[in-house]
Design brief:
Layout: H1 3-23, H2 28-43, H3 49-74, E1 87-94, E2 99-100, E3 105-115, E4 120-122, E5 126-131, E6 142-150, H4 160-165, E7 169-174, E8 177-182, H5 188-207, H6 212-221, H7 229-237, H8 250-264, H9 269-286, H10 291-309, H11 312-329, H12 333-336, H13 338-352, H14 354-361, H15 364-377, H16 380-411, E9 413-415, H17 418-426, H18 429-445, H19 447-472, E10 478-480, H20 485-512
Parallel strand pairs: 5-7
Antiparallel strand pairs: 1-3, 1-6, 2-3, 3-4, 3-5, 6-7, 6-8, 9-10
Helix pairs in contact: 1-3, 1-11, 2-3, 5-6, 5-18, 7-19, 8-9, 8-10, 8-13, 8-16, 9-10, 10-11, 10-13, 11-13, 13-16, 14-16, 15-16, 16-17, 16-20, 18-19
Length: 513
């Protein structure tokens, strides 16, 4: 076993350890026993290298489980002890950008003090507070909240407690009496990022009507709250909702598509890589650099690195190391963060499935024939452009196929039209985002120039919206399905077998040559 393979299995063992402990709450003594056994075997200086590797994997496996336990203990929410125990007074700071809805606003508050009616004392923990839209409060505001704490409950099939658990939130407070204490208690850099986002968003709203404005805000800022209900449903039916959730797996698709689009215009791979990476970083900054967006950006950049270097093993190890590192900082994202799961699987799809689709769409022999013909007819640019288009198509299909079970399980719906919708729409998304960004940026300084760029962006947006709306109206565009984890396990086992078979056949063909 090579060093690269050993590294891969060690990272994978850590992930599995976290997963097992997250699903089944085993006692700490069990994991300590496994760790001690692994250390004992590893320290015995066995001559068999494979046995030492197995011992190291066992040690890391137990460390993953222990990390999950220690993280849970460290982030224990003392505030949750007061759930459903009567009226309390909280004092804390708004630690995230307010989530503004149609009828109310949600604030994530880090609690510092609590008064239970008997005495006031310092306490730790977080609460999700639902409040009236006015007066509005901002990130970094210190508030006094008087109301009732409740534990989150499941909403139909949606695991709402699990969704909040990844942010260490175990308490809800609905429409409390709120008193403003002071501002400026947040992180200075985050405050500036949120201010930049607000200015950028205001500039977007100047020159675009609905639903183009809300769709562009979703593409650039990951915001989908203001989308019209009928268009949101059309996005769901066509499997294109990911386009307006920048912090999720669409970053990986857009990164790959942007690089393919730049190659289409004959930009050198070196420059297309850096332009695409810079675009990802810029758009993540505009979202306020939320943790989920940063994680997805890391995945997207890893895809670009893999496509730039064409080294699958290096990309695979980089991906699993990045995943392990993210999970080390927050073990709960492995089980409870759908965005992380989608971006991780989409990245795997782009690494392993996209090359298969590219080979099926344009077989290597056909590529050589095309290039040979192109040299004789001066059509080399056309060949390169065609290859770039197949890259965009392959990336889209690969990512969709990789995340399909997760989407069906979580949303209970399978979009049959999704592959076609994504191919027709995603091809133009990088250009839409580019002109939309220029429109908003220019609108801040010179509105006339912003109007010109907005017109170009409007043309792209109108095409994409119309395609989505037409496809959503087709019979059987989507069907309702109720599938569980057994389906997902069988699906991914079959997918794994197909990938391995393709790799073996590809290796055999290369050996013959």
């Amino acid at each position: 076993m090579s060093k690269s393979q050993i590294f891969f299995w060690l990272c994978l063992a850590f992930l599995i350890g976290v997963l097992v402990q997250s699903l089944i709450n085993f006692p700490r003594l069990l994991w300590l026993g496994i760790l001690i056994f692994g250390v004992a075997v590893f320290s015995a200086k066995w001559e068999r290298k494979n046995l030492m590797v197995a011992a190291a994997i066992l040690m890391v496996f137990s460390l993953g489980a222990l990390r999950s336990i220690f993280y849970e203990e460290k982030n224990f929410s003392a505030v949750s002890v007061f759930n459903d125990r009567g009226r309390v007074v909280l004092m804390g700071t708004v630690i995230a950008e307010p989530d503004i809805r149609a009828q109310k606003t949600y604030y994530r508050v880090a609690v510092e003090k609590l008064n239970d009616g008997w005495k006031e004392f310092e306490i730790s923990g977080r609460a999700l507070v639902a409040a009236e839209k006015y007066p509005p409060y901002a990130y970094g505001d210190d508030l006094r909240l008087e109301g009732y704490l409740k534990a989150p409950e499941k909403i139909d099939d949606f695991d709402y407690p699990g969704y909040l658990a990844k942010e260490n939130i175990y308490s809800l407070m609905s429409f409390p009496e709120i008193s403003f204490l002071e501002s400026g208690r947040g992180n200075f850099l985050k405050e500036k990022l949120f201010s930049l986002k607000a200015v950028f968003k205001k500039s977007l709203e100047k020159n675009l009507a609905e639903p183009q404005n809300s769709f562009l805000a979703g593409l650039l800022l990951g915001e989908k709250r203001n989308l019209p209900a009928d268009f949101s449903e059309a996005l769901s039916l066509t499997g294109t909702t990911h386009l307006v959730a920048l912090s999720r797996y669409n970053i990986t698709i857009i990164a790959s598509s942007l690089m393919g689009l730049l190659n289409f215009f004959l930009v050198r791979r070196f420059f297309s890589f850096w332009i695409s990476a810079a675009a990802i970083i810029l758009f993540v900054i505009l979202t306020g650099a939320a943790a989920s967006a940063v994680r997805a950006a890391v995945m997207g950049i890893l895809v670009l690195v893999a496509q730039q270097n064409s080294r699958l093993y290096s990309a695979r190890n980089a991906l699993i190391f990045a995943g392990a590192l993210m999970i080390w900082f927050n073990p709960k994202i492995l089980v409870f963060d759908l965005g992380f799961q989608l971006s991780f699987l989409a990245t795997l799809g782009l690494l392993y499935l996209a090359p298969i689709f590219q080979k099926w769409l344009v077989p290597p022999d056909d590529i050589h024939l095309l290039i040979s013909t192109a040299k004789q007819t001066s059509a080399g640019a056309f060949v390169k452009s065609s290859k770039a288009l197949t890259q965009i198509l392959s990336s889209t299909l690969a990512a969709q196929l990789a995340v399909l079970p997760l989407l069906v399980i979580n949303f209970g719906r399978l979009s049959l039209i999704a592959p076609l919708a994504n191919v027709l729409v995603l091809l133009f998304i990088p250009a839409t985002m580019f002109f939309g960004f220029l429109a908003a940026l220019a609108g801040i300084f010179w509105n006339t120039l912003g109007e010109i760029f907005s017109l170009v962006a409007w043309l792209f947006l109108s095409y994409e919206i119309k395609v989505i709306e037409i496809l959503a109206k087709l019979p059987l565009a989507a069907v309702k399905l109720k599938l569980g984890m057994v389906f997902a396990a069988v699906y991914y086992l079959i997918l794994f077998w197909l990938v391995r078979k393709f790799q073996k056949n590809d290796l055999a063909e290369n050996f013959k040559k």
